[in-house]
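Progress report, Aim 2. The chain analyzed during this reporting quarter is listed below.
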Amino acid sequence: AKAEKLLDRATADDHGFIGRLTPEEKLKLEEFRAMVTQVKADHPYSDKDLCRFLRARDFVVEKSLVMIKANLEYLAKQPDEDPPLETLRSAYDNGECLPFGRDKRGRRAYFHFSRNHDPANGDLVATNVVSIMNMFTRELDPASDIETFTVVFDLTGFSRSNRDMKFNKCIIDTLQNQHPERMGCCIMLNAPTIFSIVWSVVKHWLAPRTREKIMFVGGKDYQEKLRCFFDADQLSPVLGGTSGMTPQKYISERCGPPPPGSLRPKTATKKGWFGGLFGGGHEAPVDDHEPPPEELENAAKEFDQD
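Predicted structure tokens for the chain:
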């Protein structure tokens, strides 16, 4: 029952969806559809899509229209096809990205192993993650009730060398503004105390509806907890699963073995926590004091509450 409550949190407010619209929401959808058609007669949005933009702005039609206009501009700038997977393979060869499996609600899953993130490779990894979002969206069945995907950030071993606020902001902006209401659930796994520095900033970039879909999971029994969301055959061995799938295996099955010398060591950096976000960064202080862990501990305890 506890796992189902967390899995269903994304749709706990049982309205705002096609087939579950209130009379007022139906009227706003009709108004919104007419306004979007005036902007672009051959727009690519179904009523399901329009409802996503409306939910993202609490069914305020004017704000939803601003959002969808920006999305149309974004789509117009996108290439017809995603970059070839082989050009992005370093995000897999280094063990960082894995789009694989489904959660217990049938949603596609993306796993991100943050301890392998190299900020020097951040732009390429961001391009890869956006490509994965696009792929998951294309694969959705219009006739299905499934409109979302699940994201797992494995923060085991996350350290100062992995921080990359520019990458974080790029992913959050793309997810919230260009793929609104597509993330059904986000699991932050084994967040170390030092991650609270990142979280203290990132949480302010997240819309309230997005924050409600994020849960921190940890503890010695974290693999058991993770299996509340996924069957074992949908998980990588490093997460206690039986699938045998890893980022390296995923890319090798699709693009062959890595070229000789393609794996590069992580680039050392001396920039501070926000280096790169504002174009530069500052030198790290001599003392790297960790902040109090109360917020992360409270978030993790939520899982164990009845």
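Strands lie at 97-102, 108-113, 149-154, 183-189, 214-217. The two ends are 9 Å apart (CA to CA). These observations will guide the mutagenesis work planned for the next reporting period.
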